[in-house]
TrEMBL record:
Gene3D superfamilies: Acetylglutamate kinase-like, PUA domain. Substrate binds at residues 55, 142, 154. It catalyses: L-glutamate + ATP = L-glutamyl 5-phosphate + ADP. ATP binds at residues 14, 213-219. It is found in: Cytoplasm. The lineage of its organism: Bacteria, Pseudomonadati, Pseudomonadota, Alphaproteobacteria, Sphingomonadales. CDD domains: AAK_G5K_ProB (cd04242), PUA_G5K (cd21157). NCBIfam families: proB. This is Glutamate 5-kinase. Catalyzes the transfer of a phosphate group to glutamate to form L-glutamate 5-phosphate. Residues 279-340 form the PUA domain.
Length: 386
């Protein structure tokens, strides 16, 4: 058996549901899986680590629970995921054996990405599988997740996996050639072959497939996450004889999203690239502007307003007084502790909280300025004044 190590060239591949499931019969498309895994085998023979982030479980299980993509509700999709996952993994396993490699299932939830210890534990598991020559197949655990704890789309989940393993290449296989400068139904639409700033194209990305949960918008959000981690993203049509290698070699048309020339460190990338907002605070525009040149800790007296119920170690989004997101950082306190401190500004922190503290809500080394590198999030409505 060939053994792979984490230092080898790592490629993360996200496969959309429409490629994996027949839209009419809701059965596995073995012809596509055959082409995909033949290409995976070729890349492995060249010394690459390949991690697959696969959609398809819900689509393949819908028929079992007597539903269609149009009629299925949340509980139907959860049940369908439980039925479809064995079908999906069996298809991968059967074809993988033809090419002499094993596959492993890695089911994740939002918390596995948002909580740093779980993030590191997940990374260690994926690295161990790669060392054993096993191809990890990653998916969200759709059978147990609810809206509040969902990643929500496998595009961003796959981007987080790419960040997690330090991949240099991230391929999103879909049913179109890539990103277009306007709705692809428009006859005048043109393929965008290279992208630096994905924000320039967000307005052109509307719509999604019948079987999938994400359209081109989520793909650009995923590409932005990958860019910040120094990873090149390719958005390409999967309906080709060599769906991966022909993209990576530049042999066919696709959209290539360039990595940032100065990628963030692993820790800063984890802080900056969020899947959900745990909480937010507002600071003055003057302070936000000053932080660009010289980062310092955020203290209770800096907070003008806040939103959310969060715990110590959660990532907070920092907005200036004009409602523009400027930074993200790790909170040293719970939301309740911050409320107590900000509502009692003249009382020492130690007296209020009952333990010794410097009163730094976000330490300077846990603060990441966004500086026009990231897609910004809208401020929550009705932030509570401090």
């Amino acid at each position: 058996m060939d053994f792979f190590v984490a230092e080898n060239r790592s490629i993360v591949v996200k496969i959309g549901s429409a490629l994996l499931a027949n839209p009419d019969l809701l059965t596995p498309r073995f012809s596509f899986i055959q082409r995909l895994l033949e290409d995976v085998a070729q890349l492995r023979s060249e010394g690459c680590n390949v991690i697959l982030c696969s959609s398809g479980a819900v689509a393949l299980g819908l028929r079992t629970v007597g539903e269609t993509p149009e009629t299925a509700g949340v509980s139907d999709k959860q049940a369908a995921a439980a039925c479809g996952m064995p079908l999906l993994l069996n298809a991968y396993k059967q074809v993988g054996h033809e090419y002499g490699f094993e596959i492993a299932q890695v089911l994740l939830t939002l918390g596995d990405f948002e909580h740093h210890r779980r993030f590191l534990n997940t990374r260690n598991t994926v690295h161990r599988l790669l060392e054993a020559g096993v191809v990890p197949i990653v998916n969200e655990n759709d059978s147990i997740t609810t809206e509040e704890i969902r990643v929500g789309d496998n595009d961003r989940l796959a981007a987080k996996v790419a960040q997690m393993v330090g991949a240099k290449e991230f391929v999103i296989l879909t049913c179109v050639e890539g990103l277009y400068d306007r709705n692809p139904d428009d006859p005048a639409a043109k393929l965008v072959e290279e992208v630096g700033d994905v924000g320039e194209y967000m307005e052109a990305t509307t719509g999604k497939s019948t079987l999938g949960t994400g359209g081109m918008t989520t793909k650009l959000k995923a590409a932005n996450m990958a860019q910040e981690a120094g990873c090149t993203t390719y958005i390409a049509n999967g309906e080709h004889e060599r769906p991966l290698s022909a993209v990576l070699s530049g042999e066919r048309r696709c959209t290539k999203c360039l990595p940032h020339p100065k990628p963030l460190s692993g820790k800063d990338s984890w802080i900056a690239n969020r899947l959900q907002m745990a909480g937010s605070i507002e600071i003055s525009k003057e302070l936000a502007d000053a932080l660009v040149d010289e980062k310092r800790s955020i203290r209770r007296e800096d907070i003008l307003a806040m939103d959310g119920d969060f715990t110590r170690g959660d990532v907070l989004h920092l907005y200036d007084s004009e409602g523009v997101e400027r930074a993200r950082g790790l909170s040293d306190f719970t939301s309740e502790e911050i409320r107590v401190m900000t509502f009692n500004p003249d009382t020492p922190e130690e007296q209020l909280l009952g333990y010794k503290t410097k009163g730094e809500v976000i330490r300077s080394n846990n603060l990441v300025m966004l500086e026009n590198r990231h897609l910004l999030w809208d401020a929550p409505e009705g932030m509570t004044p401090s």
